[in-house]
Amino acid sequence: MIAGLINSVVGQAQDNSFYLKILKRAEKYDSTDIPGFPKFTYQSPNDSCLIALRKKFKLDSIAGLGNETTRVLNLLHWVHNTVSHDGQHESGITKINANEILTAAIEKNTKVCCGELASTLNDCYLAMGWKSRKIYCFPKDSLRVDHDSHVINIVYLYSKQKWILVDPTNDAYIKDENGELLSIEEVRERLIQGKTLIINPDANYNHISSVTKDYYLDYYMTKNLYRFYCPLNSEYDYETWGQNHKVAYVYLWPLDYQKKLPFKTDDYYNEDVKTTFNTYNIFNSKLFWQKPSD
Question: How high is the pLDDT of residue 9?
Fold first, then answer.
């Protein structure tokens, strides 16, 4: 048993080293401006669906009366505590919005994937007036054998003039050695540079197990911070497929990714889901992580 434990620890350390090398090779991005690149948009809290969400689930009370950071983290904790994660089975939820997901979780104890958790938290932040985005995080996976990825959120703190990383699946956020909350971009840079990263001590998975820095940051997110994509428009129900609906995504690739990609794909209408899709492929991280305009 002791030998097996040692082998397991050694194996994870080797994996950590392997994925860190991949991430270090992917450190650089292009800084060239891209004419014609569209702005990310964020739905107004005055949208009728967001107003209804805010009232139905009493989001003002959940956020509380503390400072901005406290209120943002209170919503993170509430979504995590209300909706459980299950990455192995489909939830059966067809409308990807916070009302549908929260209602299913509360009334039927439905468990959902990390993407549905991120959609829920994103809608809650939008309803409360914060700019936020749902971020898909992927490994390099050159051999196409790693089917694991993760979906988290960024929310913009006006009091700090920056994005911060929040993960509703693991009730997690990350700080530096000075206690400053970090963005996904900053976490990625610090992993590459070997700088201090601190995960909140109460981070956990479904209240079953603690989420540690060794696993979450040094292994799991090191693997999954190679490339990203997110919806161009951060809106309630945006990713629900349906008639006459259009969805656009922005993909961020490091310069390490050598495959040639078009800047924009042509609109593709999927007859099966009655939805039109297109994508933007960029290598400029500053454009991808740009601050929201007022």
Answer: 37
